[in-house]
């Protein structure tokens, strides 16, 4: 999936990158395609009929809005909106016609700008490629034409409204501006990597309370009102050795599990536990607090002697092994589940030494927390302490908290954006970057 994302970027963003950059510094073409087909949009016609043709873009006091829209569209190819530069040309042509003072031209121009704005806003709300959406709450919903135009019409400052919508969130805005600047360097610089990060950052909310996990830097942030209020190190999936990178996920945490079991992954049961049972005997299971169960909800353990451990080690026999709560439990004292098809969750860990390492891509895909208790306190609004020693105590949170697991190899920091390590190899390769130079060279010669 990640390779597909990179190829898509190379085919869409990079081939149009030079056009987008050139459009920022050139004037409107002498001739532009007709916009009559755009004006025939039924939704837009119904909106303008309902509002009695009230102008959106050329209403009194909004003189900055139309030129700003053209500027936003010119740079939008770097955001993957390949129609942006062409729509920008149509917008600028419409603005010029509106300035003639002809009421019909003014009305047509207003609709042309609305068509372009709707297309851009709806593109911003498309799902992030490769991201798994576990809850409807956090799944992107493409807004309707009526909704988009209604908000624009009601905005006290249309220019400020355009800026707020196009900035998406603080991380996105910083990455986009850096990508635009990078694209103007010889060969396009690292603009393709910035563009890849833009796609990943698009699903991050601009406001509200949520958890953000970045697998690239192996760090978790707690956000309130759209701003980080706390952070901690995490350990994420190991792609290099285990082939188990932590996927990108958007979901919701509804409850905490105190004194959790650890359900041992199949590959660990095969490669580690089965081999230790064969060499050390069943005492290894008792010492480690492991038990074999018929299913993950089972309350009765199966006798280890009933298991074909040689078959487990060979991969021909499947077995379900869980580790009881305790000081050596792989989940530590708590975990935080959220719906997703890969069975990924946040959890405590007894092995804190690994957090001192610079490379923290070491897990089987799940996300280990440097300070699970601190996160639990923030999520639950109280000390996350189990009432009894009973295993698997599910405690509901006061409210559901969205969680976004992403992969950002570029992040804004103190007014600058720096590229980090691409630990999973999901960023476009240098060979793709050379496509930028080729595209720019082609455009320059045309």
Automatic annotation (TrEMBL):
The keyword Membrane does not apply. The active site is at residues 347, 366. The keyword Cell wall biogenesis/degradation applies. Pfam families: Scaffold, YkuD. Pathway: Cell wall biogenesis; peptidoglycan biosynthesis. Residues 1-23 form the signal peptide. Keywords: Cell shape, Cell wall biogenesis/degradation, Peptidoglycan synthesis, Signal, Transferase. Residues 209-388 form the L,D-TPase catalytic domain. Transmembrane segments: none annotated. Belongs to the YkuD family. This is L,D-transpeptidase family protein.
């Amino acid at each position: 999936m990640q390779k597909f994302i990179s190829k898509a970027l190379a085919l869409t963003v990079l081939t149009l990158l030079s056009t987008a950059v050139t459009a920022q510094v050139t004037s409107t073409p002498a001739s532009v395609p007709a916009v009559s087909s755009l004006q025939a949009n039924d939704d837009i016609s119904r909106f303008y009929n309902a509002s009695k043709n009230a102008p959106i873009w050329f209403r009194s006091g909004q003189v900055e809005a139309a030129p700003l829209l053209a500027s936003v569209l010119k740079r939008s190819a770097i955001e993957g909106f390949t129609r942006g530069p062409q729509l920008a040309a149509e917008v600028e042509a419409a603005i010029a016609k509106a300035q003639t003072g002809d009421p019909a031209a003014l009305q047509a121009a207003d609709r042309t700008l609305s068509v372009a704005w709707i297309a851009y806003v709806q593109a911003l709300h498309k799902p992030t490629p490769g991201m798994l959406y576990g809850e409807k709450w956090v799944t992107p919903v493409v807004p309707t034409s009526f909704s988009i135009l209604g908000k624009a019409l009601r905005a006290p400052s249309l220019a400020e409204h355009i800026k707020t919508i196009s900035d998406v969130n603080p991380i996105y805005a910083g990455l986009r501006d850096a990508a635009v600047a990078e694209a103007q360097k010889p060969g396009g610089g690292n603009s393709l990597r910035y563009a890849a990060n833009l796609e990943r950052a698009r699903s991050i909310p601009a406001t509200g309370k949520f958890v953000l996990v970045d697998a690239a830097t192996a760090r978790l942030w707690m956000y309130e009102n759209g701003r980080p209020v706390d952070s901690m190190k995490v350990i994420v999936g190991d792609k290099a050795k285990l082939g188990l990178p932590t996927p990108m996920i958007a979901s919701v945490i509804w409850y905490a599990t105190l004194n959790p079991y650890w359900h041992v992954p199949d590959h660990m049961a095969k490669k580690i536990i089965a081999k230790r049972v064969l060499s050390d005997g069943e005492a290894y299971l008792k010492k480690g607090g492991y038990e074999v169960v018929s299913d993950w909800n089972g309350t009765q353990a199966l006798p280890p002697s009933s298991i074909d451990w040689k078959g487990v080690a060979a991969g021909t026999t499947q077995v379900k092994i869980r580790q009881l709560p305790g000081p050596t439990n792989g989940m530590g004292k708590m975990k935080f589940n959220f719906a997703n098809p890969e069975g990924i969750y946040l959890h405590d860990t007894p092995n804190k030494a690994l957090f001192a390492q610079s490379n923290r891509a070491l897990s089987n895909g799940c996300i280990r927390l440097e300070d699970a208790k601190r996160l639990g306190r923030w999520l639950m609004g109280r000390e996350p302490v189990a009432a009894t020693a009973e295993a698997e105590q599910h405690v509901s949170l006061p409210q559901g908290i969205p969680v976004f697991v992403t992969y950002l190899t570029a992040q804004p920091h103190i007014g600058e954006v720096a590229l980090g390590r691409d630990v999973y190899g999901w960023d476009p390769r240098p060979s793709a970057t050379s496509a930028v130079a080729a595209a720019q060279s082609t455009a320059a010669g045309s």
